[in-house]
User: Fold this.
Amino acid sequence: MSTKAEVLSKLAIRTEVVKPKRIVFVIRPEDLRKVFEELIKTFGPESFYLSTIVGVDLPAENKMRLDYYVHFIPEGETVVIRTFIDRSNPVIDSIIDIVPGALAGECETFDLLGIVFRGNPYLKRGFFVPVDLVQKGIHPLRKDSGV
Amino acid sequence: MAVKEDRYKLVRYSPWLLHFNTGACNGCDIEVLAAITPLYDPERFGIKLAPSVRHGDILIVTGAVTKKAAERLKRLYEQMPCPKFVVAVGACAISGGVFAKSYSVVGGVDKVIPVDVYIPGCPPRPEAILDGIVKLLKMIEEGRAVSKCEHKG
Amino acid sequence: MTRPKLIELVLKNLFSKPATVQFPYQKTDVEPDYRGIQYADLTKCTGCSLCAIECPAEAIKMIQIPPGYEGVNPLNKRMIYPLIDYGKCVYCYRCVKICPVNAFITTNKYDIAGASRPTSEELSLSTLKKVS
Amino acid sequence: MAITKIVEVPLVIAEIPIGPQHPALHEPVMLKVYADGEEVVKVEVNTGYNHRGIEKLCEKNTYYKDLFIIGRVCGICNTVHTNCYVRALEYLLGLEPSPRAKYLRVLAMELERVHSHMLVNATMAEVIGFESLFMQIMLDREKVMKAKEILTGARVMADYMIVGGVRRDIDDAKKERIKDLLLKLRPRVEYYKKVFEEDETIVKRLVNVGRLKPVDVTLHSLVGPIARASDIRTDVRAEDKYDAYGEIPFNVVTRKEGDSWARMMVRWDEVLESINISLYILDHLPSDGNAVPDEKRLPRIFPAGDSYARAEAPRGELTYYVMSDGKSMNPYRVKIRTPSFNNIINSAFMYIGHSLADVPVILTSLDPCISCMERVTVVDLKNNTRYRVTVRELASGKV
Assistant:
């Protein structure tokens, strides 16, 4: 039985910490699906759930950051899987077929930040952003959106 | 003139409320709900929650009006039979409250439809809501509140 | 539920008092420190505008004290006072807590509904003496 | 899009929109239900009537203005929201509130849980047509609203939390009055629990409706009482032990059935548990330390970094992510993930295979708090027949 740290650090580039004491595993964006497949294979689908997807716009570094907060139920511990994608072409693989719970988070992140999740058929604009902003193509949570 | 009098009488005897949430935080909604419970019992005044728009006399609006809900609110108001009165409950419905500057909020209810009574509070107590409605009923009785649709003829 | 228990319940409810409060003829008891409307005491206010800056709903506007009143705090050189729009105010009492001279008077009054949006103008000016 | 498929499959599909003006729902949500006769084949959740752009608003205002904006994300669970945000700020500062403040925070949150769970149980009674039970529960709920008014100074919008403590203290007289109200409330809650257990109207409408398996719960990220009713033992209060929860004894309520009835029963058990926690706090309130910090002296700028706080809202796990750049008075990013956001959007699969009359029951058993969700999306189940069968089998527990 391998632990979370062992499984995740195999694919991680480096680790960080989000206060208070939540370990962050920074991974390459193309490894995202591999990480979740690995988690389901090792621990089973009943031992964790995907809690939150946080997208942050970092215009200074020309990057966007995506954090996947995964909560492990038996230990009661939250682990962060973090990845950086290019800001000018924000595309990442969707994990909706592996973890259906990503639906809400992915749709919202697409609406607010304009990150495209490749392979998610439910992405739609204009269901939360008012129509006038959609027509202008504005993603309100981007720092340069001006709303 | 006589017809008009009769129409007001109907409202005076038993006004049915219609509650619409245009993007509230639920705080006002649960207080409107609390105001129709036995402790305050508004059925003493003949006030009852109407099951559908077509039966409503008084429209109670809670919440900051979001751009998406504004169209609905307008349509709802047009569907209501005359005479009709509008009550704005809570800071958000009156002026947008803390959300006034947001990109998806229009502002107060009075930017979309005419409002007869404002009930300030965040959220107002059930007593305040009842107080506002009773004040509206008194205004109708004294002829100070005029339903806006009457002017069209 | 069994039948004897139901009879007991029916009898109990038959002889108990109704739960309804006869509002508005009979007032309900509101806590004395319920967060009702608040207004500035102009004998204390220095016109520093901190409340207007800190207000989350931006319900406070600083306006000129009209002529014909006396008793304004001498530190209030600009002769301005906070006017609270009760239609915008969310009654969080941030202004009350943040005021450097504790100039706000708090009440538990809540029944201010009406056909127009009330403000704190009248209440605030009533703290001053009117000279005419 | 649905219509092209009907030609292929000989089904009469009627589209029945529920809401946003539906008398049973006091909130604007639109469930677009596609039905074949009486049977639901597809559900779309349309929201967005309630989107107020709070996350953007938070980036544009200072940390302290945000505190009051965040309290207005949801009126029913406002103290939990502010507590979670305040703790995220305290993690950034490395600040610890005094023990008395911690106990008072827990007291406010538990009173809120009591009234929230009573509200949803009352709404459930109304939805299934049990009007008198609705009135009874709402009448007794006024007791806990009064207790909340005594503690926080407002019935609903408490604005009770501040960085480093709470915004008002209580004295012995208030303590006695709250205790008195809670002791009066407890036998009533026990009675309602019995009604929900025994009454035929309720049992027939709720049992076996919207059954959820544990594996569906975790895969679809459902949280809170919904997860606990399906025997998933997850409770942030027990896991993170935030504020005073590490020192207060309480049980995590779980049930094995996983249907709508189990979800309501979990809520009644939690109400009793919350009343016990509140009474324990009132008996063991520590007197050391100042619970009310001076708001004029609090730091305006927070050190750079990010923090992630979790809290157990009445509807489940609530998370706040706050990122500060260390220079400005405004946060760089605030991310709110409310429990209803997961529970409503991800649960469209639950309705499939039930009759139309069950749709409001299932929706209410999820305790929809639309304003919490506040951001939006559309959920679309594929309406191709092959998929429909698998989803129906999923819902009835055959897969």
